Amino acid sequence: xxxxxxxxxxxxxxxxxxxxxxxxxxxxxxxxxxxxxxxxxxxxxxxxxxxxxxxxxxxxxxxxxxxxxxxxxxxxxxxxxxxxxxxxxxxxxxxxxxxxxxxxxxxxxxxxxxxxxx
Length: 118
Description:
Elements: E1 17-20, E2 23-24, E3 32-33, E4 36-41, E5 47-52, E6 60-61, E7 76-78, E8 95-97, H1 106-112
Parallel strand pairs: 7-8
Antiparallel strand pairs: 1-4, 2-3, 4-5, 5-6
């Protein structure tokens, strides 16, 4: 679950990142481009953040791209189980698993846990 905490942002040049937009239902008549784009480091291919034109005011950084010390989550939230390949295992540890999306938005989850920062 991405964390909503204040972080120091290091500006990146567009040549330092690469974007990927997934195709939903690839190979089926219902195939279409997703509205989100994933951004990766062009040097090491690390995932940096996800941005979605449905919510242009939001950016969702991957926890591995945040240098700020973050609290350890007591429980994971695993979403989109309906699109997880059978050979992929969920991470070990306490978790809630949803076939689609969870009961809260990212903002709602952080507010529920008292972790939201305005």
